Amino acid sequence: xxxxxxxxxxxxxxxxxxxxxxxxxxxxxxxxxxxxxxxxxxxxxxxxxxxxxxxxxxxxxxxxxxxxxxxxxxxxxxxxxxxxxxxxxxxxxxxxxxxxxxxxxxxxxxxxxxxxxxxxxxxxxxxxxxxxxxxxxxxxxxxxxxxxxxxxxxxxxxxxxxxxxxxxxxxxxxxxxxxxxxxxxxxxxxxxxxxxxxxxxxxxxxxxxxxxxxxxxxxxxxxxxxxxxxxxxxxxxxxxxxxxxxxxxxxxxxxxxxxxxx
Length: 262
Known about the structure:
Blueprint: E1 3-11, E2 16-24, E3 27-33, E4 36-43, H1 48-58, E5 70-74, E6 80-85, H2 94-97, E7 103-104, H3 133-145, H4 148-153, E8 157-162, E9 168-174, H5 177-190, E10 199-202, H6 208-216, E11 221-224, H7 230-239, E12 242-248, E13 251-256
Parallel strand pairs: 3-6, 4-7, 10-11, 11-12
Antiparallel strand pairs: 1-2, 3-4, 5-6, 8-9, 8-10, 12-13
């Protein structure tokens, strides 16, 4: 269930009304790898398989081709609380040695990390694709139409992946932007369509971590409804990502690698 209904009182100029509001669900998921705690992430409990696969991929924990076998544990309310994963030690990459051991808050991906991990900028994304601005606006329209949870609650973020021709590959929603992005990446991997993805659209703002996830997935265009942070733009320039913000009402602002825009 992506939303739950709560009672509330709505105040207007000269009246009050008792209402039932749909709120986006936020619950903790403990992720364990090979019997050891890896992280606790706050997420909207849908598409957990995609979330975990995308998280482990974008954080450089596991990038193998085999699908992960994930066993879930539930509490008395039948909500999933734990995800237990077995991965061959030889398949665990360097990101695992820097295991987070943190509480990943839903407001932004960096919250709770013990230190700001360095991102390897030695190899920038080399992609000569061209994107038409008119196509980009249509992509956002497509994503908006698929935001069912947001339409009910107004409290979720969305991320979507498209081919360069504008084909919608995946849309995911979550209480956290970075979770929605991880869910998209995980779905693309599990469906063997990651190589088709060229454009990321994201609701809200863009942090540096969203840029790093796009780079990990080798997606050259990262676009958002709102503003990027200064660090996001710095990393986009270094990593070879074409970053656009304020993509709404047929407008957009490009902050890095504009040579790919036509």
